[in-house]
Each structure stands twice: as structure tokens, then as C-alpha cells.
Design brief:
Length: 226
């Protein structure tokens, strides 16, 4: 290997792989060593979770909803004041996201033409041992049946994580010879994955966890300062 080739290899490694080697290192370089250096460099990039872009913290606001203590109430059924212009005997069941609180639907409730009932499934509404999709749906089912009375058709709206419970609840109702419709809002896992990639732009699970923790700490710091 002549000196010109060594210089060219050195510049290529520094430019393309951010690897700095001495002339002596280059002389003893082989494919096995180059492969090992590449692996080490990539692992360093994956575990370098300290470099978090400010935009990541801003994007976090797209994926989180702030709750107040007043939003958490023990009632499973929360009746909304709606227009009730269409079939007063009918009833829409609304399932909120993972927080399980009815407040996510409050702004739209006044525009709903049916009677509307929110099925809360938060920590105050369902026992801890029932916090799974299937167990949550099973826990809510008796409340839905009692509310439906002589109705044989249902309309269930699920938002975000609540979409999973809505699907399971519909399955349980159909098993009892009920029929109806499901409306799912932002409940697709692919959509959440897209939002995560779009707004958080993290290169590894470790970086994503750090972004979430930093944003939560920032939120609580602001709240405490107020």
C-alpha cells in the first residue's frame, strides 16, 4: 500500500464512517477489523441518547393529553348533554383513550344528535386486575346491557386505545345476538407509529424513552413553577 492510497483510505473512513485511524492502523487494516469498527460505530449511534433535538420535545405534545384531578371520577357511565334529535331511545357509547376519562369527548358532545354515554375505564373505574382490553370490555358489558334495555342495535365509538376495547365490546355484544356499528378514531397502531416517527423522530427505543421522560419532567417542572 503506497502513501497516496493510505491517505485516500484515511479520508474515506473519516468522511463516510467518522472513523479516524493512523497510518500504522491503516497498514494493518483488514475486512474483519473494518467490519468490527463499523458495528462499534453503529452501536455508539444507537446508544447515544443524550443528543435529543428540541423538535422532539415539541412533537411530544401531539401525543399526550394533560389531565386534571377533576377529570378522574369513579362513575363508569357519564351521560352527556346532547341534541337528542335522532331516535331518543337510541344511545351512542363513547370509549375514551388510555386515560379512560370522558373529558376527551366533552367539546363535541353538544353537537351529537343521539343520546350519548361515555364508558369510563380508568384506574378509578375498573379494578386493577381487570386492566386489559378483554377484561375491561367484560367489566363494561353489564353496564352497557343495562343501559341498552330493549335495544338490539348498538353504536360504539372508540378513540385511540379505547378503539381496542370498543372492538372487544362489540364482539361480546354480537355474541349475545346484538348487532351494530363501530366508529374508531385514531385507533390504528400504524397511525400511532407514523405519528411517533413524524413528530419524535427517534432512532432507537432508548432515545424514545428518554424523549418521553424529559418531556414529562419538563411538563411537571412548569406545573410546579406555576
Amino acid at each position: 500500500m503506497d502513501s497516496m492510497m493510505a491517505v485516500e483510505i484515511k479520508q474515506t473512513l473519516e468522511r463516510e464512517f467518522d472513523i479516524s485511524l493512523t497510518a500504522q492502523d491503516i497498514k494493518t487494516l483488514n475486512f474483519a477489523k473494518l467490519r468490527q469498527m463499523t458495528i462499534t460505530t453503529e452501536q455508539g449511534k444507537i446508544h447515544d441518547t443524550n443528543k435529543i433535538e428540541p423538535s422532539n420535545l415539541e412533537g411530544f405534545d401531539m401525543l399526550i393529553q394533560k389531565m386534571k384531578d377533576a377529570d378522574f371520577v369513579p362513575d363508569i357511565l357519564v351521560e352527556f348533554i346532547t341534541k337528542k334529535e335522532v331516535d331518543p331511545r337510541g344511545n351512542i357509547f363513547l370509549l375514551p383513550g388510555i386515560e379512560g376519562c370522558s373529558n376527551v369527548y366533552e367539546t363535541m358532545a353538544s353537537g351529537i344528535k343521539f343520546s350519548a354515554t361515555c364508558l369510563q375505564h380508568g384506574v378509578l373505574n375498573i379494578p386493577d386486575e381487570s386492566h386489559s382490553v378483554m377484561k375491561s370490555a367484560a367489566h363494561l358489558l353489564p353496564h352497557v346491557l343495562k343501559k341498552m334495555k330493549d335495544q338490539r342495535k348498538f353504536l360504539i365509538v372508540g378513540y385511540s386505545f379505547g378503539s381496542l376495547i370498543a372492538i372487544e365490546l362489540a364482539r361480546l355484544l354480537e355474541a349475545k345476538d346484538f348487532s351494530g356499528r363501530l366508529i374508531l378514531i385514531d385507533g390504528a397502531p400504524d397511525q400511532l407509529k407514523f405519528w411517533t416517527n413524524q413528530y419524535l423522530n427517534c432512532t432507537s427505543p432508548d432515545e424514545l424513552q428518554n424523549v418521553i421522560l424529559l418531556r414529562l419532567l419538563e411538563m411537571y417542572t412548569i406545573i410546579n413553577q406555576k
